[in-house]
Amino acid sequence: MFQIDLRNRMPLYEQIVENYKQLIINKVLKTDDKMPSVRDLAKELTINPNTIQKAYRELEYQGYIYTVKGIGTFISGDFQNSFDVEKANVLKETIKGAVLELLFIGFPEKDLKDYWNEILSSRKGGENNDRG
Q1: Quick one: which of 5, 40, 1, 46 has its CA closest to 24?
Q2: pLDDT tens, 76-95?
Q3: 15, 42, 104, 116: which has the fewest Cβ within 10 Å?
Q4: pTM, to two decimals
């Protein structure tokens, strides 16, 4: 599924959140797919169940997952139909800063355009590759 980097400065729960968000955004995990239980994922990743629980709470808060008491945790479809303007603005500023920094350190503008197109086509490719 995904790996946790113990040498990364990002807290473990944030790594889990980011990994799951990528899997959901790239449609590897689909609406109403059941997620592993906290205990199962903790065992698989060999980390504390409280860390997994914290990640699941954050994913639920952000609208990526939902929990049904006594049944489990599932991928939410709600986030796909909503548009969070505030979050979009924060992400746009993050992208702008990263692009300007790349240009500042000498990254060629043409390569930046090629990379942007590669990112967009890989997302589309992920949707098509799942149907095979």
Answers
A1: 1
A2: 986 655 556 677 788 889 99
A3: 104
A4: 0.64
